[in-house]
Amino acid sequence: MTALKNDRFLRALRREPVDRTPVWLMRQAGRYLPEYRATRKEAGSFLGMAKNPDVACEVTLQPLRRFDLDAAILFSDILTIPDAMGLGLYFVEGEGPKFERTVRSAADAAKLGVPDMETELRYVMDAVRVIRRELDGKVPLIGFSGSPWTLACYMVEGGGGKDFARIKAMALNDPETLHQLLSVNTDAVIAYLAAQRAAGAQALQVFDTWGGVLSPAMYREFSLPYLQRIARELDRGALRQAQGELDEHVPLILFGKGTAAYLEDLAASGADGVGVDWLVELGEAARRTQGKVALQGNLDPATLYGSPDAIRREVRRALDSYRDGNGGSRDGHVFNLGHGMSPDMNPDHVAVLVDEVHAYSAR
Ligand code: CP3
């Protein structure tokens, strides 16, 4: 494989010195880009795009043509796993993802198994391979998965819930079934991330988007232990590396929304990076994690609705906050938003953000 031309992102995840703070944005490929909307129209649907490796590659590369981003993220979705488990994923315009079948009972959970990565999820692995080839070493490629808990939310609710009534009732009334579901999800997530790594992903991120809807006691029972298992078991990659299967360690980032209360636990999980949302000061996050991990984040995505001057001001504030909490060093920081971008955001504002990160953080 071609050597990487820009390894800032991977160096920052190792907390090594870099010339500029690296930046990428969650949901950097998407509906806010006119070229994305054009490709989507041609492909017919979101799933039609995600399931076609050449189209997934095209859409992955679109934001990199416009902006000076330091990483690419695979164009796919977290719900590919439950879809491959047989739940029947579909999208309703304006309503988001839905499943034809849900998991509500022990019998439903017992039917689930880990999908085969090179048959049922082959389209994802093929997309990783095509994107790596087309990137040609320009920047590293991030593979990803949902967390076991976040996937379970969609599988039990049957789509994007608001109050998570059904899965919380399951946690209260039938925790054994929920643990069974989380356990098979964890096996699937580990196999999925390992397969993306084998196909060429150079970093891996787990999205625990709904971790923050749980009470602390429930987070510690239903989300954290499974994230910890992922970090532990994926790290067996170290063994595979020793056996010559992998060239180098592929770093793992754990992103959680509303989960800043557990930063210390996430930093001790064995992951290389922790993604933080905008409800915590980066400086505070850096102080609390004490250099154990790299930190990724954390501008409020709504910052992109501000004027260019306001965006630059907020970028500088976040960069300075990280440095202040990190003993005066900017190393070990990957700049990002605290969550994904929205369809009504202005692409010109993204350029302002990305360029300001690089300009202001230049060492
Ligand atoms: O970051 C990237 O650019 C990579 C691609 C990516 C997508 N989804 C593309 C997508 C990633 C990393 C995801 C993850 C994902 N998907 C998460 C976790 C991250 C997060 O945002 O919290 C979740 C919860 C999902 C489930 C999901 N898929 C939702 C809620 C939606 C939006 C539905 C809607 O109508 O707004 C999707 C669809 C989806 N995934 C889109 C994109 C670009 C929009 C699809 C379209 O074109 O209509």
UniProtKB/TrEMBL annotation:
Keywords: Cytoplasm, Decarboxylase, Lyase, Porphyrin biosynthesis. It is found in: Cytoplasm. It catalyses: uroporphyrinogen III + 4 H(+) = coproporphyrinogen III + 4 CO2. Transmembrane segments: none annotated. It holds the Pfam family URO-D. Its main location: cytoplasm. Pathway: Porphyrin-containing compound metabolism; protoporphyrin-IX biosynthesis; coproporphyrinogen-III from 5-aminolevulinate: step 4/4. Residues 22-31, 142-158 form the Uroporphyrinogen decarboxylase (URO-D) domain. It is an enzyme of class 4 (lyase). Substrate binds at residues 27-31, 77, 154, 209, 339. The record marks 77 as: Transition state stabilizer. Its EC number is 4.1.1.37. Catalyzes the decarboxylation of four acetate groups of uroporphyrinogen-III to yield coproporphyrinogen-III. Belongs to the uroporphyrinogen decarboxylase family. NCBIfam families: hemE. PANTHER family: METHYLTETRAHYDROFOLATE:HOMOCYSTEINE METHYLTRANSFERASE RELATED (PTHR21091), UROPORPHYRINOGEN DECARBOXYLASE (PTHR21091:SF169). Homodimer. This is Uroporphyrinogen decarboxylase. It comes from Pseudoxanthomonas japonensis. The gene is hemE.
